[in-house]
Amino acid sequence: MGAWGYKVNENDGACDFYDSLTESKDAAKIVEKALKSGYPEEIRAVAQFLMAIRKYAGSAWLFDDHFARAKAALADLVSDSDWIDSWDDPATAKRELKRQLAILNKLVD
């Protein structure tokens, strides 16, 4: 795992996702691919991206159908004990993930 912290953007997977967004002409396709990837770091980065779009741009119609899937994917990660336990401090990893999910829920509901 190429991570240097517990927050959503403190890993190589998130940085790779953001790089692919900036290099693509079809951001929705990149979001879709990352949601399907199964990689927790990419899923969290997608959720963070969607949260920023919703918070700062208001309407995010291009990504409307991705919000529910991102919420479900984050909820699945919260209960993924194998991934949570792979961290040197599982409690901090789970707390950060729950914090991110709570913010996404608040922005979308």
Task: Tell me about this structure.
The protein has 109 residues and is mostly helical. It has one domain. 73% of the residues lie in helices and 0% in strands. The chain is built from six helices and no strands. Helix 1 packs antiparallel against helix 2 and helix 3 (40-57) packs across helix 4. The radius of gyration is 13 Å and the shape is globular. The relative contact order is 0.15.
Whole-number tally of structural domains: 1
First and last CA, distance: 32 Å
Beta-strand percent range? under 5%
Major β-sheet annotation: none
Tally the beta strands: 0
Choose one word for the global shape: globular
Averaging pLDDT over every residue, what do you get? 86
Count of individual helical segments: 6
Order of helices and strands: HHHHHH
Provide the structure class: mainly alpha
Low-confidence stretches: none
As an assembly, this protein is single chain
Supply Rg.
13 Å
Helical percentage: over 70%
Write the layout of secondary structure elements.
Elements: H1 12-23, H2 27-37, H3 40-57, H4 64-78, H5 81-85, H6 90-108
Helix pairs in contact: 1-2, 1-3, 2-3, 3-4, 3-6, 4-6
Task: Write a brief caption for the model.
With 109 residues, the chain is mostly helical.
Write a concise keyword list for the protein shown above:
109 residues; mainly alpha; 0% strand; single chain; globular
